[in-house]
């Protein structure tokens, strides 16, 4: 009972711990910096550094996939040694340097900056989310509502940043766009520091074991060794991004480790836990496919918008904010919908929601492909298809992404919750890796066509878009580029719809394996 009293003794604001407000704004500005820079990255590489599409997609995919590897390590180090406060500050400082160094035009600074953001994000991202959970006592009814408010902060940052950073980049130059992203990160860290100064977090987030933290080796304590190791690892991640063609080896290493360790856990748990764990793995595989298709947003879809869409009121980088804008609109109605359906006992179970998530994702990409019907003489399509496509796939995201997070904690054996959360985030690592491969299918060289131009997928493309390789080749290069985009979007849209329907059909079997978890 004493625990509950100490929770209410924390400074309160609008019925929530005051610390939530500080974490909300710290995360809002951190996501502002992350998404602002992300929106510019592929355009900066193709338009300013003059990388070809293949190279740009390779760098982008490696960067975005590694951003999801480091949180597994950063989370473990914070849990065991650093505590949330120190981990968040370390991550924030590394990311600030990463954003500002992007404004120096030298390859070593370009790749070094991406390395700094990858490592910094590993300390910042998982621990600020965990810190939100720390503010609430076990079983506090306000926890879900607190996370919904926090999720809104993430998406406000993600919606504003691409528009503002893109405007700065176009008006004053690329480097000013990156500097603005860096200023966002500085603001986020200052908000967090002022929260520490005003003591709004009570006794939360400190070093978990001071004795362990202070233990010295060669005259330096563990905390300082972590800082040094983080800085040293920047070079490794920068090299992986630069030589992204070798990232496949890392994928094999991570996969071997996951297969081995999950296999080991399966031998250690009860039959009921084993079935639930297999469902967690199944959900993660579905999420990997979802992420691989969904994450065209920052890469091929940005170039599609730049080259083949008649944009109104925003530029190509700004289109990255459409998805986050729809999340802000839909997040609260969706959470109310689940409550409403639960009350009437007709809330579909998670296995069905995952299928619906993939179904809507596929329909969104089919809408992008349908835009070919509105093409003008300059191979430009109507922007309305881009907006509606994003709206439909955002519905898919809300069916799948938040649901998956909450299910992982319920499905994993108690002793292995942190690891299974890491497995869930590995779907983003795999997703971005494969997203890069999908994006590369949209590149055009010497009038060649991709594998979706003929046969079964060629027929699908023609049926959905009305275009064939012959029609495209009789027109300008821009038409061939358009055909390349819409053939990939139509084909992967159909694949996603088929997998979604299959997941819905087998949902009764999955539901049975979940052993009472909805």
Automatic annotation (TrEMBL):
<feature type="transmembrane region" description="Helical">
    <location>
        <begin position="108"/>
        <end position="128"/>
    </location>
</feature>
<feature type="transmembrane region" description="Helical">
    <location>
        <begin position="482"/>
        <end position="506"/>
    </location>
</feature>
<dbReference type="InterPro" id="IPR000109">
    <property type="entry name" value="POT_fam"/>
</dbReference>
<feature type="transmembrane region" description="Helical">
    <location>
        <begin position="149"/>
        <end position="170"/>
    </location>
</feature>
<protein>
    <submittedName>
        <fullName>Peptide transporter</fullName>
    </submittedName>
</protein>
<feature type="transmembrane region" description="Helical">
    <location>
        <begin position="57"/>
        <end position="77"/>
    </location>
</feature>
<dbReference type="InterPro" id="IPR018456">
    <property type="entry name" value="PTR2_symporter_CS"/>
</dbReference>
<keyword id="KW-0813">Transport</keyword>
<keyword id="KW-0812">Transmembrane</keyword>
<dbReference type="InterPro" id="IPR036259">
    <property type="entry name" value="MFS_trans_sf"/>
</dbReference>
<feature type="transmembrane region" description="Helical">
    <location>
        <begin position="416"/>
        <end position="435"/>
    </location>
</feature>
<keyword id="KW-0571">Peptide transport</keyword>
<dbReference type="GO" id="GO:1904680">
    <property type="term" value="F:peptide transmembrane transporter activity"/>
</dbReference>
<keyword id="KW-1003">Cell membrane</keyword>
<feature type="transmembrane region" description="Helical">
    <location>
        <begin position="176"/>
        <end position="196"/>
    </location>
</feature>
<feature type="transmembrane region" description="Helical">
    <location>
        <begin position="324"/>
        <end position="342"/>
    </location>
</feature>
<dbReference type="Pfam" id="PF00854">
    <property type="entry name" value="PTR2"/>
</dbReference>
<dbReference type="InterPro" id="IPR005279">
    <property type="entry name" value="Dipep/tripep_permease"/>
</dbReference>
<keyword id="KW-0472">Membrane</keyword>
<dbReference type="GO" id="GO:0006857">
    <property type="term" value="P:oligopeptide transport"/>
</dbReference>
<feature type="transmembrane region" description="Helical">
    <location>
        <begin position="354"/>
        <end position="372"/>
    </location>
</feature>
<feature type="transmembrane region" description="Helical">
    <location>
        <begin position="20"/>
        <end position="45"/>
    </location>
</feature>
<keyword id="KW-1133">Transmembrane helix</keyword>
<feature type="transmembrane region" description="Helical">
    <location>
        <begin position="384"/>
        <end position="404"/>
    </location>
</feature>
<keyword id="KW-0653">Protein transport</keyword>
<feature type="transmembrane region" description="Helical">
    <location>
        <begin position="279"/>
        <end position="304"/>
    </location>
</feature>
<dbReference type="GO" id="GO:0005886">
    <property type="term" value="C:plasma membrane"/>
</dbReference>
<dbReference type="InterPro" id="IPR050171">
    <property type="entry name" value="MFS_Transporters"/>
</dbReference>
<feature type="transmembrane region" description="Helical">
    <location>
        <begin position="84"/>
        <end position="102"/>
    </location>
</feature>
<feature type="transmembrane region" description="Helical">
    <location>
        <begin position="225"/>
        <end position="243"/>
    </location>
</feature>
<feature type="transmembrane region" description="Helical">
    <location>
        <begin position="249"/>
        <end position="267"/>
    </location>
</feature>
């Amino acid at each position: 009972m004493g625990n509950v009293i100490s929770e209410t003794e924390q400074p309160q604001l609008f019925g929530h711990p005051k610390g939530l407000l500080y974490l909300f704004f710290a995360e809002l500005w951190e996501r502002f910096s992350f998404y602002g820079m992300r929106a510019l990255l592929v355009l900066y590489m193709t338009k300013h550094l003059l990388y070809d599409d293949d190279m740009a997609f390779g760098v982008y995919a490696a960067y975005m996939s590694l951003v999801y590897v480091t949180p597994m390590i950063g989370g473990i180090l914070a849990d065991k040694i650093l505590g949330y406060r120190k981990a968040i500050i370390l991550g924030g400082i590394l990311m600030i340097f990463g954003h500002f160094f992007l404004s120096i035009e030298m390859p070593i600074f370009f790749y070094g900056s991406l390395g700094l953001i990858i490592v910094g994000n590993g300390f910042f991202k998982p621990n600020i989310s965990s810190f939100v959970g720390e503010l609430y006592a076990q079983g506090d009814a306000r926890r879900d509502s607190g996370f919904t408010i926090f999720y809104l902060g993430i998406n406000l940052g993600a919606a504003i940043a691409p528009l503002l950073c893109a405007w700065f980049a176009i008006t004053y130059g690329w480097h000013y766009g990156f500097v603005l992203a860096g200023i966002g990160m500085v603001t986020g860290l200052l908000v967090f520091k002022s929260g520490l100064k005003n003591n709004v977090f009570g006794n939360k987030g400190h070093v978990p074991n001071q004795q362990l933290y202070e233990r010295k080796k060669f005259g330096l304590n563990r905390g300082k060794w972590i800082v040094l190791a983080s800085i040293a690892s920047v070079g490794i991640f920068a090299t992986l991004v630069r030589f992204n063609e070798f990232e496949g080896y890392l994928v094999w290493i991570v996969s071997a480790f996951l297969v081995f360790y999950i296999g080991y856990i399966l031998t250690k748990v009860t039959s009921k836990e084993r079935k639930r764990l297999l469902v967690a793995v199944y959900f993660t595989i579905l999420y990997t496919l979802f992420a691989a298709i969904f994450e065209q947003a920052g890469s091929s879809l940005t170039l599609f918008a730049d080259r083949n869409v008649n944009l109104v009121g925003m530029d190509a980088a700004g289109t990255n904010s459409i998805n986050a804008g729809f999340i802000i609109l839909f997040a609260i109605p969706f959470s109310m919908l689940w409550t409403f359906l639960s009350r009437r006992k007709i809330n579909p179970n998670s296995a069905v929601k995952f299928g619906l998530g993939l179904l809507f994702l596929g329909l969104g990409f089919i809408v992008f492909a349908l835009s070919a019907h509105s093409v003008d003489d300059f191979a430009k399509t109507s922007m309305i298809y881009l907006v509606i496509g994003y709206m439909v796939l955002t519905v898919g995201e809300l069916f799948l992404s938040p649901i998956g997070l909450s299910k992982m904690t319920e499905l994993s054996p108690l002793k292995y919750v942190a690891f299974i959360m890491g497995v869930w985030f590995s779907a983003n690592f795999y997703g971005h890796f494969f997203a890069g491969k999908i994006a590369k299918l949209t590149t055009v060289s010497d009038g060649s066509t991709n594998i979706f131009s003929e046969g079964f997928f060629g027929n699908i493309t023609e049926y959905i878009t009305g275009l064939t390789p012959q029609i495209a080749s009789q027109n300008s290069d821009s038409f061939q580029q358009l055909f390349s985009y819409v053939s990939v979007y139509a084909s992967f849209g159909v694949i996603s719809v088929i997998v979604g329907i299959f997941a819905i059909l087998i949902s009764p079997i999955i539901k049975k394996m979940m052993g009472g978890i909805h």
